[in-house]
UniProtKB/TrEMBL annotation, chain A:
Main subcellular location: membrane
Annotated keywords: Membrane, Protein transport, Transport
Organism: Penstemon smallii
The keyword S-adenosyl-L-methionine belongs to this UniProt entry's keyword annotation: no
Lineage of the species this protein comes from: Eukaryota, Viridiplantae, Streptophyta, Embryophyta, Tracheophyta
Annotated family: Belongs to the adaptor complexes small subunit family.
Subcellular location(s) of the protein: Endomembrane system
Pfam families: Clat_adaptor_s
Protein known as: AP complex subunit sigma
From TrEMBL, chain B:
Every Clathrin adaptor alpha/beta/gamma-adaptin appendage Ig-like subdomain domain range: 757-866
Function summary: Subunit of the adaptor protein complex 2 (AP-2). Adaptor protein complexes function in protein transport via transport vesicles in different membrane traffic pathways. Adaptor protein complexes are vesicle coat components and appear to be involved in cargo selection and vesicle formation. AP-2 is involved in clathrin-dependent endocytosis in which cargo proteins are incorporated into vesicles surrounded by clathrin (clathrin-coated vesicles, CCVs) which are destined for fusion with the early endosome. The complex binds polyphosphoinositides.
SUPFAM superfamilies (alphabetical): ARM repeat (SSF48371), Clathrin adaptor appendage domain (SSF49348), Subdomain of clathrin and coatomer appendage domain (SSF55711)
Organism domain of life: Eukaryota
Residues involved in a 1,2-diacyl-sn-glycero-3-phospho-(1D-myo-inositol-3,4,5-trisphosphate) binding: 7-8, 49, 53-57
Membrane topology, record value: Peripheral membrane protein
Ranges that cross the membrane: none
Subcellular localization, as worded in the UniProt entry: Membrane, Coated pit
UniProt source species: Penstemon smallii
Keyword presence, Membrane: yes
SMART domains, per database record: Alpha_adaptinC2
Keywords in alphabetical order: Coated pit, Endocytosis, Membrane, Protein transport, Transport
Protein name in the entry: AP-2 complex subunit alpha
The keyword Protein transport appears for this protein: yes
Lineage: Eukaryota, Viridiplantae, Streptophyta, Embryophyta, Tracheophyta
Length: 143, 1024
């Protein structure tokens, strides 16, 4: 299985979105999120986007104050995941228009829906932005 | 900014955000949780909208890291809401809050199924996503057919089918039987023809999972994958929406190339040509561009293509092209590319021919070892470790040593272990090896595990030429002002043994050596003091003529420690004191340590064990191990000389340790030291301190000091030992080691060896039976996995107590036994599942150490488990067209081995055919023109070899049925050897006559090589 988790965490270490594709209990999640963010915060932009942590490889990207972190196993293509993060951000951009931390925070449910359209069971399901967004548009129309 | 549709939720989120500190946040969250709880209690008043709002709040709180232990029912119940918005929330929150084992999830199965088979496709999507993310085994059993139907249905829209594909993947992982291989491979092939890129992307993930488990069934899909790649590479029929920065779905390209890496080769020349065209184009046509995203995406594809080329082991030219590319990558400024260049170069080392080209980049790689980025440093370290050989070991190890002083703490342990291993493996001369290890201890003592210094002591002991040099070096280090405790240990040990070789040098008289070592004593911990005491005793012995002054100094120390609270120190002090008063007798007893038996380096073994995960061990994995160790998980780190370490829970009970246990028991119960007199000579037994990290080596190093020429494991073979202890063995001690005394009064029913042999050929039957218990076994084998169930049946009207089952797996099997209850009720049968994973080919046999108590009878038996080599075979018929090219391509040793076997038990050819077929070696009639010969084939599965075709040819002599010539071939040298030996064992096997459970002769497996005796599994099997 490729993707183990997707996290969005801000510079202060507050989790803004967390989706796990393997079960971890609350303790483990808290510890994991804390450790990873500490590790990533200590890094600068001249360093690579991959951090080995426990038995995960974390592929991360920073957009302004927000870190996007994807935990994968050894069987994943790191650069493909790195660009998948960007695809996720672009998709959110298309929906929110210049997405920022607050959008994700206050529209937690939409962020979740988008991610759910893109990743399932740790695998990529869809990479076309319009296909990803169409269920959300449908929902907005309905309400 | 636009607030979310749910005002209450937005207010809450912004309240939490405005909290000044964690304490205030907690208060706010607690208040909200209280509020939600109250609202849920009066459920009648809640509108669907309110429910939705509260459930989102719960999810938000959970995400912040607070426990939400209620409201799960409400979340699940939303799934059955009639309207889409509520239903959707129900699904999403359920899959975030619950895991697959949650009881509430079962309640939802029916609703979920109705949504899946219903006509509303948005509901279908929601339900498929939930099952795909958290569906468990029960879902697999009840939903798989429906999900399959959706996936292949032509009337179903892509948005549903893509989810069905990944949902099916989940169900397949929960229960592989849900995808019936026979019919399924054709459908899979059809799915790969899919035009919709979403469906194709998720189907490809499903395909990767299927093919990684069993590529044989999916050969027909291979050309389809190549077609997909061609379509993407040529950008044919790829909608704009699926092009990412001008690159046709890089993710699908990567996935497809990954799938192809699960096929051993591409045989069809046309497909191969098309594939290489695509790969060539990727290798040549990927340029560095300004746009980061485009650059990353194209390099993602490039790296995957590199991996595929390496896997296919293409023509030399293409391979050197790959190495050249990687060489370029490891020197670029872009850190991601540098990282991946190093990582892929390490992978490339597996391909034998390129090592020399990689070596040309050594200087560049060493530069990366000093990179400011730890991720890159780690990769560089791995690569240097992998590329090291005799020619460059000195350079590389010296670089590592130099780096050690500045390395991050997180890396030091790994670094020192790797340096130690390389120094050992590739030392141009042994004195260099000693230098390296001592430097290592000097520079990073805290990170040098005990194994490392044990190993250097072994080397010095076994190589006489090295002893004066090592002693001199050890003496030099002692002059340093502050040295690490490990350095004190190793130098004290070496000087104790060999300082007399230095006697004429300045500063090396016994007295001087003693005083410089003794200076360190106040600084060391209790675990080091025993070593120092041994050293003193040895120095005293070597001082000829005796030095009265030195003697009285050392005796003073011994008598001081005779009342030490630490039993180990106390015992040594008393013994050495008594011994050294005996004068001449001391010489024999304290003679130099004998040579250690040659054995695989425990360091290398350790590195192999940890290779899978070089970074920190996962806490989660560790936790899982600890939990299941209730059910006796034994790691395979057992040492070679027969004293397995006590597992975390102390469940390992091995008979040969019982003597030590007796001593130990007495030691603790009486608080007195044991000095046993045998025939007037003193015999010292050093019980191992319970906390010793690695008993095997300590057992040798700190264990019994050369007892009249006996080596470490001598005591239990000494018949005088027992009587020597009798006086001291009291009831307490008996209670500690009762197994040996009281077992074997119960006779087994039937012949254990025959039962085992029968189970090697079939999958269910009785493994063991005696008047009280029957142990049955039932097994299912699937590629390199085995699922066994042990049936423990109590035959009596009284319960069986203290039931213990312990699996002692050989190093090539990973075995996990579920919890075995301590008591088996009267007339009851309990089932204990046992999971087996085959890591590599080996004939070693796993042993079940089983014990129980019935009334006053303590029964302990050691049973070989039929998880033998042939269980991992899958018979396969090959045609002449398939057979001969393979047979020819595997030319000569070590892949093809031939042997004339004598002493074969005579059997007719037909019987032999039957035997082979029952071993899952499929006899292929008609391939060999000579009717006296037979040819058989099978596929062997293990984690290291994956699926591997094995071919066997037997040439018999009709005139003499007791001999034959056997040729065995496969793509893996170990497999070939093990298979050959395995077949030989089967052919010359002679059933052992029926015996009681009392010790059987160790040669149960007559042809096993002598080194098998060192394997504890084999050792125990021999005890049967």
């Amino acid at each position: 299985m490729g993707i183990r988790f997707v996290l969005m965490v801000n510079k202060q270490g507050q989790t803004r979105l967390a989706q796990y594709y393997e079960y971890l209990n609350l303790e483990e999640r808290r510890a994991l999120e804390g450790e990873i963010v500490r590790k990533c915060l200590a890094r600068n932009e001249h360093q690579c986007s991959f951090v080995e942590h426990r038995n995960y490889k974390v592929v991360y990207r920073r957009y302004a104050s927000l870190f996007f972190l994807v935990g994968v196993d050894n069987e994943e293509n790191e650069l493909a995941i790195l660009e998948f993060i960007h695809l996720l951000v672009e998709t959110m951009d298309r929906h929110f228009g210049n997405v920022c931390e607050l959008d994700i925070m206050f529209h937690l449910e939409k962020a979740h829906f988008m991610l759910e359209e893109m990743v399932m069971n740790g695998c990529i399901v869809e990479t076309s932005k319009s296909s990803i967004l169409s269920p959300i548009q449908l929902m907005e129309k309905a309400s | 900014m636009a607030l979310s549709g749910m005002r209450g939720l937005s207010v809450f989120i912004s309240d939490v955000r405005n909290c000044q500190n964690k304490e205030l946040e907690r208060l706010r969250v607690d208040k909200e949780l209280g509020n939600i709880r109250t609202r849920f209690k009066n459920e009648k008043g809640l509108t669907p909208y309110e429910k939705k709002k509260y459930v989102w709040k719960m999810l938000y709180i959970y995400m912040l890291g607070y426990d939400v232990d209620f409201g799960h029912m409400e979340a699940v119940s939303l799934i059955s809401a009639p309207k889409y918005p509520e239903k959707q929330v129900g699904y999403i929150v359920t899959s975030s809050l619950l895991n697959e084992n949650h009881d509430f999830l079962r309640l939802a199965i029916n609703t979920v199924r109705n949504d899946i088979i219903g006509r509303n496709e948005t509901f279908q999507c929601l339900a498929l996503t939930l099952v795909g993310n958290i569906g468990g085994r029960e879902f697999a059993e009840s939903l798989a057919p429906d999900v399959q139907k959706l996936l292949i249905s032509s009337s179903c829209r892509p948005l549903v089918r893509k989810k069905a594909a990944l949902c099916l993947l989940r169900l397949y992982r929960k229960n592989p039987d849900v995808v019936n291989v026979d019919g399924w491979s054709d459908r899979m092939a059809q799915l790969l023809d899919e035009r919709d890129m979403g469906v194709l992307t998720s189907s490809m993930s499903l395909f990767v999972a299927l093919v990684s488990n069993n590529h044989e069934a999916y050969w027909s899909c291979l050309p389809k994958c190549v077609k997909v790649l061609e379509r993407l590479a040529r950008n044919q029929d790829v909608p704009q929406e699926y092009t990412y920065y001008g690159i046709p779905s890089p993710w699908l390209q990567v996935k497809t190339m990954r799938a192809l890496q699960y096929f051993p080769t591409v045989e069809d020349p046309n497909t191969r040509r098309s594939l290489f065209e695509v790969l060539q184009r990727v290798l040549m046509g990927t340029d560095v561009v300004k746009n980061v995203n485009k650059n990353n995406a194209s390099h993602a594809v490039l790296f995957e293509a590199l991996a595929l080329v390496m896997h296919l082991d293409a023509e030399k030219e293409m391979m050197s092209q790959c190495v050249a590319l990687l060489g370029k990558f490891i020197a670029v400024r872009e850190p991601n590319i540098r990282y991946l260049g190093l990582e892929n170069m390490t992978r490339m080392l597996m391909v034998a021919d390129v090592q020399d080209i990689i070596k040309r980049h050594q200087a560049q790689i060493i530069t990366s070892l000093k990179d400011p980025d730890i991720s890159i440093r780690r990769r560089a370290l791995d690569l240097l470790y992998g590329m090291c050989d005799v020619s460059n070991a000195k350079d590389i190890v010296e670089e590592l040593l130099q780096y050690l002083s500045t390395a991050d703490f997180a890396m030091r342990e790994e670094l020192s272990l790797k340096a130690a291993i390389l120094a050992e493996k590739f030392a141009p001369d042994l004195s260099w090896y000693v230098d390296v290890i001592l430097q290592l201890i000097d520079k990073a003592g805290d990170f040098v595990s005990d194994d490392i210094w044990f190993r250097v002591v072994q080397f010095v002991t076994n190589n006489e030429d090295l002893q004066p040099y090592a002693a001199m070096k050890a003496r030099e280090y002692l002059d340093k002002p502050a040295i690490h405790e490990t350095m004190v240990k190793v130098s004290a040990y070496i000087l104790g043994e060999y300082s007399h070789l230095l006697a004429r040098r300045p500063g090396c008289s016994p007295k001087e050596i003693f005083s410089i070592i003794h200076e360190k004593l106040p600084t060391v911990s209790t675990s080091t003091i025993p070593i120092l005491l041994s050293t003193y005793a040895k120095i005293l012995m070597h001082t000829q003529p005796p030095d009265q002054d030195l003697q009285s100094q050392i005796w003073t120390i011994f008598s001081k420690y005779e009342s030490c609270i630490d039993a180990e120190i106390q015992q040594r002090a008393v013994e050495y004191h008594a011994l050294s008063m005996k004068g001449a007798a001391l010489m024999d007893i304290l003679a130099e340590m004998p040579k250690f038996p040659e054995r695989q380096s425990s360091l290398i073994k350790k590195a192999e064990d940890s290779e899978a995960d070089t970074a920190e061990q996962s806490a989660i994995k560790l936790r899982a191990q600890q939990q299941s160790s209730n059910a006796l998980v034994v790691t395979d780190q057992r040492p070679a000389n027969g004293t397995p370490p006590v597992s975390q829970l102390g469940l390992v009970k091995v008979p040969i340790m019982s003597n030590e246990k007796i001593i130990h028991g007495q030691d603790q119960s009486t608080g007195e030291q044991v000095v046993a007199h045998t025939n007037g000579a003193l015999t010292i037994m050093d019980p191992q301190p319970p906390s010793t990290p690695s008993p095997d080596l300590l057992g040798d190093l700190l264990g019994p000091l050369a007892i009249e020429g006996n080596t470490g494991i001598a005591p239990q073979s000494d018949p005088n030992m027992g009587s020597g202890f009798e006086g001291g063995t009291n009831a307490d001690a008996l209670a500690i080691a009762p197994v040996e005394e009281q077992t074997n009064t119960v006779q087994p029913i039937g012949n254990i060896a025959e039962r085992f042999q029968a189970l090697c050929l079939k999958d269910s039957g009785v493994l063991y039976e005696d008047p009280y218990i029957q142990i049955g076994i039932k097994a299912e084998w699937r590629v390199h996995h085995g699922q066994l169930v042990l049936f423990l049946g109590n035959k009596n009207i009284a319960p069986l107590n203290s039931v213990q089952a312990l699996i002692l797996p050989p190093s090539h099997l990973k075995m996990e036994l579920s919890l075995v209850p301590e008591t088996i009720p009267p007339r009851a049968q309990v089932q204990c599942p046992l999971e087996v994973i085959n890591l590599q080919p080996s004939r070693d046999v796993a042993v079940l150490d089983f014990s129980y108590k019935f009334g006053t009878h303590m029964v302990n038996v050691k049973l070989r488990l039929p998880a033998v080599l042939n269980k991992f075979f899958q018979p396969i018929t090959v045609t002449a067209e398939e057979f001969f090219p393979q047979w020819r391509s595997l030319s000569g040793p070590p892949l093809k081995l031939q042997e004339v076997v004598r002493g074969v038990r005579p059997m007719l050819l037909a019987e032999m055919v039957a035997l082979f077929n029952s071993l899952r070696l499929m006899v292929c009639p008609g391939l060999d023109p000579n009717a006296n010969n037979l040819v058989a084939s099978t596929t062997f599965y293990s984690e290291s070899t994956r699926a591997m075709l094995c071919l066997i040819r037997i040439e018999t002599d009709p005139a003499d049925r007791t001999q034959l010539r056997m040729t065995v071939a496969s793509g893996d040298p170990t497999l070939t050897y093990e298979l050959k030996e395995f077949i030989k064992e089967q052919l010359v096997y002679i059933p052992v006559p029926s015996r009681s459970a009392a010790p059987m002769p160790p040669q149960v497996r007559p042809t096993s090589p002598p080194n098998a005796v060192l394997d504890p599994g084999a050792l125990l099997a021999g005890l049967l």
